[in-house]
Design goal:
The complex is a heterodimer. Chain A is α/β, with parallel strands linked by helices. Chain A has twelve helices and eight strands. The longest helix of chain A has 17 residues. Chain A is elongated and about 65 Å long. The N terminus of chain A is likely disordered. By secondary structure, chain B is an alpha/beta fold. In chain B, helix 6 runs parallel beside helix 7, helix 8 runs parallel beside helix 9 and helix 15 packs antiparallel against helix 18. In chain B, strand 7 and strand 8 form a beta hairpin.
C-alpha cells in the first residue's frame, strides 16, 4: 500500500475540482458588496448547481438571512463565515460515529447499482486491516456477473480473508456462512458486500431485510453498522435512495463515493440535513487508500480554501 | 417511470391554472416558477432550466396566450413543445455501416454508469436483428470487469474477445477489430473502462482507441440519476472524445431523470436507448416526444397503442370478436378471463399499462402497489387453472365441493375462491348492462384536453 498521504492533502487533491466549481463560485459571490435579493439569488443558484437541492438550499438561505439580520451584517464578505458555520453545523459527524471499530461489528454495505459498493468494501477492508483489525469480507452480491471475482481481487489486495459465493445463490445464505465464519475465526469486523438494488424494487428490498434478519438471529451480540453508498454524481434521487433504504434497515452512515470528479458533492449536505444520517467516509480516488473518514471541518474548510 | 414525479408536479400546477377563466401575467409567472422548481428537483441542470423557462415565458407571455380561449391549454402546449424540442424531436434509430462492412460501437462513461451491462444488452438487441456481434473487453482496470462481460456475453450468446488485463485497451480494440473482420462479424462493441471526464490520461486512451479502430458510433452511457454534473460529464466526453449518441441507464428507478434533458441540451446528440432493468433484454428505444408527453401527465398513450398492436400481431381476431359479442350478452366465462390475463401480460403487466394511461402518472401510480396487484392476478389465474374444462366453460356448475377442490388445487383459501367467483358473477351482471350504458354519453367529450 502506498504511503499515507494524509487526509487533508488527499481530500484537497480529490476535491480540487469541487473547489474550482463550487467554491470559486462562492468566492466570487462573496466579492459582491451588497446583500440584496440578487446576492441571495446567486447563492441559491450556486447551491442548486452543486446538487444541494432546492429544499435544502432554501433552508440554508432562510437560516443565513436570519443570521444576517440578527448580527446586523451589511457586507457580503461577512456572510461567508456565517455560511461556513451553517454548513458545518449541518454536516457535523455525531460523536461515537466510529466507535464500532472498538467492538465486534458487522457492516452491511448497501446501495443502488453502480455506486461503488464492492470497491468501497475492498477499500474499507484495506483500511481496517491497516489499523490492525481482523477483517472478513463477504461476497453477498450474488446477482451481478463476476461481482464475486471482483471482491476476491480486492480481498487479495487488502490481504483479508473472504467468504465468496457463486452467482445466483441466495445472498442470505452467503451472509449466514460469513457470520458463522466470523464467529468461528473471531474476526473484529465482518464487511458484507451486497448486490446493487434500486430502492423502489420491492423484492430486492425484502432480500435486504432477510439478510439483516440472519445477522440479527445468528450474531445478536455483534454491533451493527449499515452504510448506504452514494455516488457523488447522483442528483436529488440520492435522497430518495437514502430514505427508502432507511425504511428497510437502520441506516447509520453514508459513504460518499466518486468525490474526485467534478460532482460538487452537495447532495451530502442535503441528505445529512434532511435525513440526519452522517457521512462517515468519502471516496476520492481509485487507489485502495483513497477512502477516508469524513471530517466535517476539513471537508468544509477544504471547500473554502483556495 | 423516470419522470413520474415531475409530471405530478406539473399536473398540480396546471390544475391551479385551469379553473380560472383568463390568465394574468402573474399567473403565468407563478406557473413557470413551479415548473422551474419541479425541473430543478428533477435534476435538470440549472442553466438548462433557466433557458427553458425563458423560452416558455417568452412565448407564454405573448398575445396569443392571453387572447386564447383556454390559456391553460396553451401553456401545456408550449411547455410540451419546448420540452420535446429540448429532448430531440424524433426517435433516432441506431445505424450501421452499409453492406457487410464491420460496424464498431464504442461505449464509454463514468464508473458505474452501466457500460458493461449496456454492452451486453446492445449485443442481445443486435443478435435479435440477426447481426453477428462481437463484444470486446477493453476494461483492463476494474477487477473482474472482463469476467463480468464474459458471463454476460454467454447469457446473450455473443462471443467475447479479450486479451487479459496486461494489454493496452487500444491494442485490444485493434486486435478485436482484426479478428472481427477476419471472422465476418457485422458489429463490434467495445466495452471500455469507467473513467472520470477530467482524467486526461484516461480520456486520451479513448481517443487512441478511436485512432486505431474506425469507431462508427461513440456512445456515452449516462446514469439517469445523475445530478447537475451531467452537463459537465457529457460536454467533456463530447468535446474530448466526440459522441454520436447516448444510452440512458437505470431509468427503472424513481429518479425524475432530468439528466436526460441536460445531456441532450449540452451535447445535442440523440438518446438512442434507455436501459431500464437488470435483465439483459431490457433495452428500449427512447421516444423523446412521448417522454415529453409523459412529463406533462398526458400519458404515454402512443407507447400503449404500439404495445397493443404488437400484442395483437399474433392474436386471433375472430376469437376476439366472438369474445366481445359474448361479453355484450354477459355470457363470458372463465376461459375469457384467462385470455384477458394473457393479453395483459403481453402488454407488459398491469403496472406498465397503468403508467402509460393519461392521468395515471405520478400520484395515482404512487398509491398503486403493482407487486401486490400482480400477486393477486397470479392467484386468480391459479384459481381458474385449477378448474376443470367444464367448470371454466360453465360457471354455473360451481358448488361447494368443486370450490373446495379448486381451493386446494390453487393453494388458496376457500374464501379466496368464493370471493373471486362472486366478483366474477358481478362483472357478468355488469357486462349485461354495459350495452345500454354505451348508448350516448361518450359524445361531447371529444376535443377535450386529456388532463
Amino acid at each position: 500500500m502506498e504511503e499515507n498521504k494524509g487526509f487533508f492533502k488527499r481530500l484537497r487533491e480529490g476535491l480540487t475540482k469541487t473547489r474550482s466549481g463550487f467554491v470559486s463560485g462562492l468566492n466570487n459571490l462573496f466579492k459582491a458588496s451588497e446583500i440584496d435579493d440578487d446576492f441571495y439569488e446567486e447563492l441559491e443558484e450556486i447551491l442548486v448547481m452543486g446538487d444541494v437541492g432546492v429544499k435544502t438550499t432554501e433552508t440554508i438561505i432562510e437560516g443565513l438571512k436570519d443570521d444576517v439580520k440578527k448580527n446586523h451584517i451589511k457586507e457580503a464578505a461577512e456572510c461567508r463565515e456565517l455560511l461556513i458555520n451553517r454548513l458545518k453545523s449541518v454536516m457535523e459527524v455525531p460523536e461515537g460515529a466510529y466507535d464500532y471499530l472498538d467492538r465486534k461489528t458487522v457492516v452491511m454495505v448497501i446501495g443502488v447499482n453502480g455506486v461503488g459498493k464492492t470497491t468501497t468494501v475492498g477499500k474499507l477492508a484495506g483500511r481496517m486491516k491497516e489499523s490492525g483489525k481482523k477483517v472478513l469480507v463477504a461476497a453477498a452480491d450474488t446477482f451481478r456477473a463476476a461481482a464475486n471475482d471482483q471482491l476476491v481481487k480486492w480481498a487479495e489486495r487488502a490481504g483479508v480473508s473472504i467468504v465468496s459465493s457463486v452467482e445466483g445463490t441466495d445472498p442470505a445464505s452467503v451472509v449466514y456462512d460469513a457470520v458463522t465464519a466470523a464467529k468461528a475465526r473471531d474476526v473484529d469486523v465482518l464487511i458484507c458486500d451486497t448486490a446493487g438494488r434500486l430502492h423502489n424494487k420491492k423484492n430486492l428490498m425484502e432480500e435486504l431485510r432477510k439478510m439483516n434478519k440472519i445477522v440479527d438471529r445468528e450474531f445478536p451480540e455483534a454491533h451493527r453498522e449499515t452504510w448506504v453508498v452514494l455516488d457523488a454524481t447522483t442528483g436529488q434521487n440520492a435522497l430518495n435512495q437514502a430514505r427508502e433504504f432507511g425504511l428497510v434497515t437502520d441506516l447509520n452512515g453514508i459513504v460518499l463515493t466518486k468525490m474526485d470528479g467534478t460532482a460538487k458533492g452537495g447532495i451530502a449536505i442535503a441528505i445529512t440535513s434532511e435525513l440526519n444520517i452522517p457521512v462517515k467516509y468519502i471516496g476520492v480516488g481509485e487507489g485502495i487508500d483513497d477512502l477516508q473518514r469524513f471530517d466535517t471541518d476539513e471537508f468544509i474548510d477544504a471547500l473554502f480554501t483556495n | 417511470m423516470a419522470f413520474d414525479s415531475l409530471s405530478e408536479k406539473l399536473q398540480s400546477v396546471f390544475k391551479n391554472l385551469r379553473g380560472k377563466g383568463k390568465l394574468s401575467e402573474e399567473d403565468i409567472k407563478a406557473a413557470l416558477k413551479e415548473i422551474k422548481m419541479a425541473l430543478l428537483e428533477a435534476d435538470v441542470n440549472f442553466k438548462v432550466v433557466k433557458e427553458f423557462i425563458n423560452n416558455v415565458s417568452e412565448k407564454a407571455l405573448g398575445q396569443e396566450i392571453l387572447d386564447g380561449l383556454n390559456p391553460g391549454q396553451m401553456i401545456v402546449k408550449i411547455v410540451n413543445e419546448e420540452l420535446t424540442s429540448l429532448m430531440g424531436s424524433e426517435v433516432t434509430e441506431l445505424t450501421f455501416k452499409p453492406g457487410k462492412e464491420l460496424t464498431v460501437f464504442m461505449l464509454c462513461g463514468l464508473q458505474g454508469a452501466g457500460k458493461t451491462t449496456a454492452s451486453a444488452k446492445l449485443a442481445l438487441r443486435l443478435k435479435q436483428k440477426s447481426k453477428k456481434t462481437l463484444l470486446a473487453a477493453c476494461d483492463v482496470y476494474r477487477p473482474a470487469a472482463i469476467e463480468q462481460l464474459k458471463v454476460n456475453g454467454k447469457k446473450v450468446d455473443t462471443e467475447v474477445f479479450e486479451m487479459g488485463t496486461d494489454v493496452k485497451p487500444s491494442k485490444i480494440a485493434k486486435e478485436a477489430y482484426d479478428y472481427a473482420v477476419k471472422n465476418n462479424f457485422n458489429v463490434l462493441i467495445l466495452d471500455t473502462a469507467g473513467r472520470l471526464h477530467i482524467d486526461e490520461d484516461m480520456m486520451a486512451e479513448l481517443i487512441e482507441i478511436k485512432e486505431k479502430v474506425p469507431v462508427f458510433k461513440t456512445i456515452l452511457v449516462v446514469d439517469a440519476m445523475t445530478g447537475q454534473d451531467a452537463v459537465n460529464v457529457a460536454s467533456e466526453f463530447n468535446e474530448k472524445v466526440g459522441l454520436d449518441g447516448v444510452i440512458l441507464s437505470k431509468t427503472d428507478g424513481d429518479t425524475r431523470g432530468g439528466a436526460a434533458l441536460s445531456v441532450k441540451r449540452v451535447t445535442d446528440k440523440p438518446i438512442l436507448f434507455v436501459s431500464n432493468g437488470e435483465k439483459l433484454d431490457e433495452l428500449e428505444a427512447f421516444y423523446p416526444d412521448r417522454m415529453a408527453n409523459r412529463i406533462l401527465g398526458m400519458g404515454d398513450v402512443l407507447s400503449l397503442i404500439e404495445k397493443v398492436e404488437e400484442a395483437n400481431k399474433d392474436r386471433d381476431l375472430s376469437k376476439d370478436k366472438e369474445m366481445a359479442s359474448r361479453m355484450k350478452k354477459g355470457k363470458f366465462d372463465f376461459n375469457d378471463y384467462l385470455e384477458s390475463i394473457k393479453q395483459m401480460r403481453k402488454l407488459g403487466g398491469l403496472a406498465s399499462i397503468m403508467g402509460m394511461l393519461p392521468g395515471m402518472g405520478g400520484k395515482a401510480m404512487a398509491d398503486f402497489d403493482s407487486d401486490e396487484s400482480e400477486k393477486k392476478i397470479k392467484q386468480t389465474e391459479a384459481i381458474v387453472l385449477s378448474m376443470t374444462k367444464k367448470e371454466r366453460e360453465n360457471p354455473k356448475l360451481m358448488n361447494p365441493q368443486r370450490k373446495h377442490r379448486i381451493a386446494k388445487g390453487a393453494g388458496v383459501d376457500i374464501a379466496d375462491v368464493n370471493r373471486f367467483i362472486k366478483q366474477f358473477e358481478q362483472s357478468q351482471k355488469m357486462m349485461k348492462q354495459l350495452p345500454n350504458m354505451m348508448g350516448g354519453g361518450f359524445r361531447g367529450r371529444k376535443g377535450r384536453f386529456p388532463f
